[in-house]
Amino acid sequence: MSLDSKTPSGPMALRWSKHKQDSKLINPKNKRKYTVIVVGSGLAGSSAAATLSELGYKVKCFCFQDSPRRAHSIAAQGGINAAKNYQNDGDSVHRLFYDTVKGGDFRARESNVHRLAEESVNIIDQCAAQGVPFAREYGGGLANRSFGGAQVSRTFYARGQTGQQLLLGAYSALNKEVARGGVEMHTRSEMLEVVVVDGHAKGIITRDLMTGKIEAHAADTVLLCTGGYGNVFYLSTNAMGCNVTATWRAHRKGAYFANPCYTQIHPTCIPVSGDYQSKLTLMSESLRNDGRIWVPKNKADIGKPASQIPEADRDYFLERKYPSFGNLAPRDISSRAAKEACDAGLGVGPGGRGVYLDFAEAIGQFGQKTIAERYGNLFEMYEKITGESGYKQPMRIYPAVHYTMGGLWVDYNLMSSLPGLHVLGEANFSDHGANRLGASALMQGLADGYFVIPTTIAPYLVTQTPGNVTTSHPEFTKALEDAQGRTNKFLNIKGKRSVDSFHRELGLMVWDK
Amino acid sequence: MARDKAGLTEALKRIPELREEFWSNVKVPGSGAAANPELEKAGRVADFMEFAELLCHDALDREESCGGHFRTEHQYDDGEAKRDDENYCYAAAWEHTGDLSKPKLNKEQLTFEEVHLSVRSYK
Amino acid sequence: MSLLNLQLKVWRQNQGQPGHFQDIQAREIPDHASFLEMMDIVNERLIQDGGDPVAFDHDCREGICGMCSMTINGIAHGPEKATTTCQLHMRKFRDGDTIWVEPFRAKAFPVVKDLMVNRSAFDRIQQAGGFVTVRTGAAPDANSILVGKEVADAAMDAAACIGCGACVASCKNASAMLFVSAKAGQLNSLPQGQPEKDRRTLGMVRQMDKEGFGNCTNQYECEAACPKEISVRWITKLNRDYALAAAKEAFVGVQEHAEGGD
């Protein structure tokens, strides 16, 4: 089947405006008749639920955590890109668009990326108005920092917790709408199935995680905002609860899954220290500005303290292989080079799965005080987790799965190949191609939720009679029985191995191959 | 981080075996009618077991290296990723057929009108 | 790496039923493991032995989502300062230690199971005013609202609260003042938050009282337990903002609800 992306035609820079102009509208009186289900309450889900409710739709929002504020968007540290050009350094929507297409290694849809770059500026306005405490300059204007893959300074940030602050902003907008009665929030609720009636997504089946009750919910359209699938590898930087269930159940019901092989590996994570390890922790890759990455040249030196390995017996492999970029070689290159060194038996630390990130030279040159000013919080975090001081001995790092660019296929309106099922944020495949640039994930989640779906949902809804499917439809009864049956099946196997032991084995299999 | 045909083929053989073992030998204590974190995990891992197979099919099908996807068979002499725009400039949209070992590939061809296809270089 | 043998006393409880402490041996625990990884190991063994694994809340395991919530040896999030349960590591304990593990206890946080509690009261407090009423798409250019660096930095200090509830669990009165004051304080100190300041303050404080949290008696255990080191000076600010708003309400009247406010 050939896929129709419904991308508008005409000049790239005008496509989104034209599409908005051409999109059908629903008058306020009729909007109230439509119910929208939003699954997930991260940046994409919260922003979509809040905005659709403001527009007058009836919204039901679901999350598996005990509060919408805990979704994993919260863990993003670095920042969010926007083509504001507040620095007067030549940034523009076109430049952000260009960097993102190129950074994605030419495997993203150009029209979507351009729209993302256009909306980036509105996101910053919206978040600032909500009271997100972005970093400021003394004059009161917004501050920016630089990030990988760009020659301009366009990243907005809130200390080291930009993700949490943006999510709290979206969560506050959601709370405003819950208070107004526009959003019905269901926490500790996990989606188990999408319900399809006459070929259209018309609802979901959920399990209440406190009482175990399996319930049906009907709507006129369903939005999946359920994040990525990085936890297929068991060990990743994802939260423990991040999962593929919502998108995978939808895939089984007819939504195409696009580019699942595009997964991003981040080079500067704290390595695995034993079998008990449950997750990996990311440290900002800014550490590579001053740290030198090396492994011993000789296997005989592997177990020795780093200080006893003389300079001549160290292999600064990135500096050797990429003399012009050195330790700042791109993420994918650096990650692969570290794995090669470890595969060759030269890795350090438990299991030989680590390489050194050494600050001795930088400390010698600038003094420990300066290094602490630059990276103090990261050194603290490293010490908390490993019990070692990065000032006294080299840190150990290893690459880890971080973000997944693949996801459910969507057209320009963010609708999947299953009519009525829309997919937003990391859960869809649309904007990052084969590789995502730093500080772009937050941008996509919020663009989809605040600014794209509120426009692109109407063209689908106008084709539907509101409320014409209820949970009394036989398809709901059947889906409820299926979900209940599956739950009972798990409980009745009564085998010998724990769920985690299977997950660990699966993860290793996918990671090693 | 780096994939090859042999490894992916092996994974495609082993994942269904592990899945089969899962469905016959997993131990989920407790009841369905109350809070039960192990039951939640079981549902999620069951889906990862199926999804993992699709991930490997996709990685095997994409005979090129691009972005986060690196196939050791497809690299330049200096280890840089070797993209194949001639044959793989598409989004692979997989359709569920009911048989997890035979997903159906649908393609969305990607066209680049504004940003011209070029090789990323870090030299 | 060394291995620890520990004696756990873990709170076990099913929803709506009385709870009790259970003795659980935690043998051969790697000292590099985090506290939650220790609990994973314990649970995996309980499952193998046909027991009931201990239910606890957790998600990001990097100290930012606020989901994890254990009272360890009587201290919310355990003995290490400015650290969430998930970031506490076993090297902080000694071989042979007895460790008491309890949920975050408060009347307003009913136990769901074992160490999991229901903190939805925090969401309802936020819904009672923890926002700036701004419609999507109606925001002016971000740089048209100037915020001095000192003001922005202070707001960020308050905004760092992760909503875990350690402040409540550590307070002898189970007061939520540190949480509420941080949430209200962030917005009340920014120019964007001024128009709704009184309504927000009254709404949030009154919802807090309605949820059954206790009164603040200025003992400041909350600050000591807070993993994000939120300062009690936010409580002072909230008391001031509340007194002002309540006085204005008494004399002029303040609309508490969002309806018709514009």
Give a verbal description of the structure.
The complex is a heterotrimer of chains A (513), B (123) and C (262). Chain A has 513 residues and is an alpha/beta fold. Chain A contains 15 helices and 17 strands. In chain A, the strands form five sheets. Chain A has a five-stranded parallel β-sheet with strand order 5-2-1-9-17, with helices on both faces. Chain A is globular. Helices cover 41% and strands 10% of the residues of chain B. The mean pLDDT of chain B is 95. Chain C is an alpha+beta fold and 262 residues long. Chain C folds into two domains: 3-113, Beta-grasp domain (Ubiquitin-like (UB roll)); 119-259, Alpha-helical ferredoxin (Fumarate Reductase Iron-sulfur Protein, Chain B, domain 2). Chain C contains eight helices and seven strands; from the N terminus they run ββαβββββααααααα. Chain C has a five-stranded mixed β-sheet. The longest helix of chain C is centred in the C-terminal third of the chain and has 19 residues, at 233-251. Classes of the chains: A alpha/beta (513), B mainly alpha (123), C alpha+beta (262). At the A-B interface, helix 4, helix 7, strand 10, strand 11 and helix 9 of A face helix 1, helix 2, strand 1 and strand 2 of B.
